[in-house]
Design a protein that fits this description.
Blueprint lengths: L1 E3 L5 H30 L5 H32 L4 E3 L7 H14 L2 H18 L5 H25 L14 H37 L3 H11 L12 H15 L6
Length: 252
């Protein structure tokens, strides 16, 4: 029988890497959808090519990030539990896993996300539309939340001497407080912003004349003036976007 390991405070932090990385993946995916939408607003070929190039780059980064995340998830799954016979992953191994999760958020990836956000804001600034202005604000909110989380997680001190025999109760309380800040404040508030971004971009996509015309032609339907988010047509639109327009053969 397997029970949750309670003896290493660093396990608490390790467990928070999973929801954080999942949200990073969702965030980057919605940036790709926002790039797709922004491309459909363009008239100049040079701007279209720049945005298409950025979309391809971000898709590649998402694929790479998810592959690395899956590999680390497989490595860390046994580190969150302890067998009844007492065998468990050492504190040092757990800390090394946490550091590997941290390393996924490298400077190259952060710069790609920043540059993507900046490019989107520049292109969307050219549109005189209230809903697009709200989208720009939401993009910035999500970027700031992302960077705040990365900065906070990077600064968390990791200790190697947390085995059950000498673990200090203050260390555990301190780590629990840090984890609660991540889970109940930073991650929760960022997740709310990400959900708002997701709603805003798909609402705009579902109203875009060019996109809806392409969608109509692909499913051989006419006179789709508006698409309600709880409708079967909206689900078809999402699947069409993912499979035919945005990601294609890329397996995410």
């Amino acid at each position: 029988m397997v029970k949750e390991m309670q003896k290493d405070v660093n396990v608490l932090l390790l467990k928070q890497q999973i929801p954080f990385m999942l949200n990073v993946s969702h965030y980057m995916t919605d940036l790709v959808y926002t790039l797709y939408y922004t491309i459909k607003l363009q008239d100049e070929q040079s701007h279209i090519l720049e945005l298409e190039g950025r979309k391809t780059l971000l898709c590649d980064e998402i694929y790479k990030l998810r592959e690395q995340f899956r590999n680390l998830l497989n490595q860390s799954s046994g580190s969150m539990y302890i067998e009844e016979d007492g065998n468990s992953t050492s504190s040092k191994d757990i800390i090394e896993l946490i550091q590997q999760f941290k390393n996924l958020m490298n400077e190259e990836l952060l710069q790609i996300v920043r540059d993507t956000n900046n490019l989107l804001i520049i292109e969307l600034d050219k549109q005189n539309d209230n809903d697009i202005n709200k989208l720009k604000l939401q993009l910035d909110n999500c970027l700031y939340g992302f960077l705040n989380l990365v900065t906070f997680i990077r600064k968390i001190p990791l200790k190697f001497d947390n085995d059950s025999k000498n673990q200090d109760s203050n260390n555990r309380e301190s780590m629990e407080s840090i984890v609660n800040v991540i889970k109940d404040e930073l991650l929760l508030s960022w997740k709310i912003e990400l959900d708002l971004l997701n709603c805003k971009i798909f609402n705009l996509i579902s109203k875009n004349v060019k996109i809806i015309k392409l969608f109509q032609d692909s499913i051989n339907e006419e006179n789709i003036d508006s698409i309600k988010e709880d409708s079967e047509t909206f689900i078809k639109l999402i699947n069409w976007l993912k499979d035919d327009q945005v990601f294609g053969s890329i397996v995410l």
